Amino acid sequence: MNSIQDIKSELKEKLAESIDYSRESSDEEIRELIDDMLIRESKKVPLSLTERDKLRRELFHAIRKLDVLQEFVDDPQVTEIMVNGPDNIFVERGGRLYKSDLKFENGEKLQNVVQQIVSDCNRVVNEASPIVDARLQNGARVNVVLNPVALNGPILTIRRFPDKPITMENLISFGSVTSQVCEWLGRLVKAKYNIFISGGTGSGKTTFLNALSHYIPAEERIITIEDSAELQICSIPNLVRMETRNANVEGCQEITIRDLIKTSLRMRPDRIIVGEVRGGEAFDMMQCLNTGHDGSMSTGHANSSTDMLSRLENMILMGMEIPLDAIRQQIASGIDIIVHLGRLRDKSRKVLEIVEVLGFAEGKIQLKPLYQFTETGEDAEGRVQGELVKKGELTYVEKLQSAGLC
Description:
By secondary structure, the protein is α/β, with parallel strands linked by helices. It folds into three domains: 1-57, no CATH class; 65-162, 2-Layer Sandwich (Beta-Lactamase); 168-402, Rossmann fold (3-Layer(aba) Sandwich). 35% of the residues lie in helices and 24% in strands. The protein has 13 helices and 15 strands. It has helices at residues 4-18, 27-44, 49-64, 70-74, 107-120, 168-174, 179-190, 205-213, 257-264, 281-289, 305-319, 324-334, 398-402; strands at residues 78-84, 89-93, 96-99, 131-135, 141-145, 155-159, 195-199, 222-226, 239-243, 271-274, 297-301, 337-343, 349-361, 364-378, 384-390.
């Protein structure tokens, strides 16, 4: 007797031959074709109702969706999907990695899924341009690396975001931050303090930035700039969302974050939110913060608040050759608050540190710790226990006073 996998492969071939490619077939027509084939097949090989439903779903996913990855994309418990070639698929659930038993039929099918993903957001990936960032229709972030760069490729990494944006109330319930700190940060956002969020990979920077943005007054005009659109800002009616574009062989010119920041300044923004700074665009971001766009926010990768300042210095030097003291003065006058996030050994994400940028003196950017996470131990299940301890009062309260929030 043929196995379910053999039946699936055979039906997939027949289904591909049955589709009329001279016109656009609807999802419902594809499902009807699948149902007809399953009815005919069940006369040859007895299939249980469960087997038929599973085959129906898998065949539809193979033709119209992301094949074996679709069930992970649809699973709200999955936060990350990692594909290391056609035979190795890993998923992250609850902060822990698991290897899946599922695999692609062959490398060609995985290549087809990759091309489907990037073409849906008008991007191109091939051997000549083997690295690309993209996104799925549900907003999930996608990174693709192909041969010859990826020796065991194609490599596909999908960061899946919650269907509903995570709010500060959610972060409080997760233990990531306290309600008192959230209320205080909310007042800083309303008073237009420039806030920079730092942290390592997977520490929740974008999630925190998104939650923080809900404190922005609804009457303001906001421009978001990202490599791949991830922010889910729903509370601002006057919202402009912009995304970078890669150059391609068809002659489309590359549009970088630097280009978008420069053009955003002509769009009468009240605030500019840059999803993440990674390179020379840090200089343009500092220009925004120093030219009347108070209340702007961004994120960056770093191991601490102090490291974030060093990284910003290096990134600005990548985009502009100016004296280091001048760079530090730009950073010190542009950023008011740095919120540093971390992912602890129990996989929980927490606010580890909040510092105030006091200014530039004696050749250094002066920082003042306001809050620090202090670990107190572990509970019986190995979860890290601790609290966000207040270390000092905000020095510069002029913006709070001007906004009547002091």
